[in-house]
Amino acid sequence: MIQQEGPGWRLARDPSRGVHPVLIGGEGWAFELTQPEWDALSDLVLTLERQHRALVDQLMAEEAIELELDRGLWWGCLQGDRGSWSLSVVLTPDAGRGVEGHWPAPASAAIVAAMRTLWDTRIDQRD
Questions:
Q1: Nearest Cα to Cα of residue 107 among 81, 88, 92
Q2: Residues 30-72 pLDDT 10s
Q3: Contact (CB, 8 A) for 85 and 52
Q4: Bridge-partner residues for 103, per DSSP?
Q5: Is there a contact between 41 and 66 (Cβ–Cβ < 8 Å)?
Q6: Mean pLDDT across the chain, nearest whole number?
Q7: Residues 109/103, Cβ–Cβ less than 8 Å
Q8: What is the distance between the alpha carbons of residues 73 and 46, in angstroms, rounded to a whole number?
Q9: Hey, which bits of 8-48 come out as E strands?
Q10: For the structural domain made of 35-126, what CATH number should be given?
Q11: To which H or E segment does residue 3 belong?
Q12: Interacting residues of 57 by C-beta distance below 8 A, sequence separation 6+
């Protein structure tokens, strides 16, 4: 079991939990994800963060940016400026439950760092 948390965010992965091995949360909310949902969310969020990093040097200090990405099940939005940003995600499956989450700055950067660690750990375990 891997469990990480900080102010305004929480992330846990427990493969023994069966259908929903990943729990992700924010201030006052949390939801469980299937492995495919987690894989798709991680890919979406890490892509948004990578896009922000690629653009940050082109932004003036007071300039705002909003990046949106829609990838089937997941929609995500990174909104902020050079130094800080918030992150919103929405799961909209063809059938079943839908979920919505939001992390304000600085919790958003912290959850993305934790997601990257968990993603990298899982990739390393596949090799």
A1: 88
A2: 999 999 999 999 999 999 999 999 999 999 988 999 999 999 9
A3: yes
A4: 87
A5: no
A6: 92
A7: no
A8: 16
A9: 9-13, 22-26, 29-33
A10: 2.30.31.10
A11: strand 2-6
A12: none
Residue 111: count of CB within 10 angstroms of its CB? 24
Residue listed under structure tokens 């705002």: 64
Beta bridge partners of 32: 23
DSSP letters, 59-101, are: S-TT--EEEEEEETTEEEEEEE-SS-EEEEEEE--SSS--EEE
Give backbone dihedrals phi and psi of 81, rounded to 5 degrees, phi first. Answer: -140, -160
Yes or no: say if 64 and 105 are a contact pair by the CB < 8 Å rule: no
Residue 124 pLDDT > 80, yes or no?
A: no
Q: CA distances (Å), 77 to each of 72, 124, 125, in order?
A: 14, 28, 29
Q: Which of 54, 41, 42 is nearest to 121 (CA)?
A: 42
Starting at the earlier edge strand, list the strands of the sheet with 9-13: 2-6, 9-13, 22-26, 29-33
Q: Domain segments of the chain: what residues?
A: 35-126
Q: Is 21 helix (H, G, I), strand (E, B) or coil?
A: coil
